[in-house]
Amino acid sequence: MRKGNGEKRKDGLWTDAAKRFRKNKLAMAGLVMLAILILCALFANYIAPFHYDEQNLPAAFESPSLRHLMGTDNLGRDIFSRIIYGTRTSLSIALVAVLVATLAGGLMGAVAAFYGGVLDNVIMRFLDVFLAIPSTLLAIAIAAVLGPGVTNTVLAITIGQLPGLARIVRATVLSIKGEEYIRAARSIGAGNMRIIGLHILPNAMAPIIVQATLYVASAILSISSLSFIGLGIQPPTPEWGSMLSAGRAYIRDYWFIVAFPGLAIMATIFAFNLIGDGLRDALDPRLKN
Amino acid sequence: MHRYILKRLLMLIPVLLGVSLTVFALLYFSPGDVVDSIVAQGGVYSEEDAAQLREEFGLNKPFFIQYLSYIKGIVLHFDFGTSYLTKRSVTAEILDRFPTTVLLAVLGIGIAFAIGVPAGILSATRQYSMFDNIVTPISLLGVSMPGFWFGLMLIILFSVKLEWLPASGFYGPKYWILPALTIGFSAAAFIMRMTRSSMLEVIRQDYIRTARAKGQSERIIITKHALKNALIPIITSTGLQFGFMLGGSILAESVFAISGLGKLILDGIKARNYPVVQGGILFIAFVFSFVNLLVDVIYAYADPQIKSQYVRKRRRDK
Questions:
Q1: Which of A173, A185, B23, B275 is least buried, going by the fewest C-beta atoms within 10 A?
Q2: Residues of B with Cβ-Cβ distance to A224 under 8 angstroms
Q3: pTM reported for the whole predicted model
């Protein structure tokens, strides 16, 4: 606590957190990595030296060189360019899926926690059913039913992640609901809408943002897993997991076909994990000494 | 305690019923059925044959009739239906494959626990040391790495380049090493991170300072005082990872061509062999929930505070 006489206003949670985040080298490294990935996704057609579907059969299986930084695949396509275009696929699907899952799951969790009672029971028992299936398997089952394709993959990932997010939001709202300032707000006659919008939502935001960031990392993994087993994104759309699955057949002789797409997946997940961890430390100062 | 376990077991029933209904509905309303894929493979030619096959499999009955007879079979005869393709009972198919999956999961969790817990303790007790500074980023990389890709990399190194270990199958200890490492490594990273943060939190507690003040040896402080109190998150993460391995090693099984439960389900999905898929998912949901229940029970033994909530308030003197 600053001793000042009220002249110097204490920084708010977000300014404070931003300061702490900026001091965290690992988190900043994650942010830089993410910025690069987003640039790759936005400007893939300018950055990539070749089009993702440009085949050149005589130049198939070329080892990494200056012309083809990561070599070429079985159809002579430039792996580096395909990986650059692949950021579009993975980032957009993961972000949309987690956004929808957070909104829908968040709504379910928040309603369950805030109103409690029968509604809470109904929602949570319904979600228990989905939580009883490991989320990868759930996404696989749903993708299998819906069939491959971008929209269906988004849907499968969303449904796979929704129950977990709902449970997190429920726990967060539940803990806030018990705080004294909520009781104080109620005692001065604030209505439900005012309490939710003005008191619960802003306070629940921080933990939810942290979790959502970490869920993006796991969404990226799910997308590539689905594509790897042939249920997610279909060729010729460049997607890292399906590049791995197509390259598997040539693993004996051409390591670079499978090595680089996997590195791309790992780097992306790593970036989101770094940012998520950094956000958690920045938003919850109690965790850091 | 027994009452609590019994209650939890009973609570599994509605959840599993829900899982069965959900999976059944999902597969029922999905486009295409097994007859379509048999037709596509050239197994049946005429429309009449296809219709007859549907009749035989009971595919043209209404949804609820199909579902109820499915549940009836499970409850009365522990019969999960018959595989369309092999004509064997799904129960037998699952039980055939399950030991492989269990063995793989046990090996994987063994590796994960053996690496994760000591590494976590070491890096927590030597926070910001060289060891910590090397191992902690590696563990973050470990949780970021797609397991199936790690498996492929292991194959390139140990099977293709060095020719030390086989790249596929699951016939003996030599075959177990790479798949177990594949699923064990990221789990080890996860457990290590949990152990580290949990230990760090405990080490700052007053009772650790008290133990140090009374001159207790550091070894005993770490093993007896700190580790015992840091155990709950470690158990949770280990249990969680074990549950995932039992139900979710689909990708590792596919990379190493292991005929486990995951591959059974995946093959079933591809062939639209739905009884196998339904039975498999239901079985995994049961195992997964059961492992979670087991973890909760172990909690009680690890933490007397939690146990006292379940052992009815006969003696609650601390």
A1: A185
A2: 146
A3: 0.86
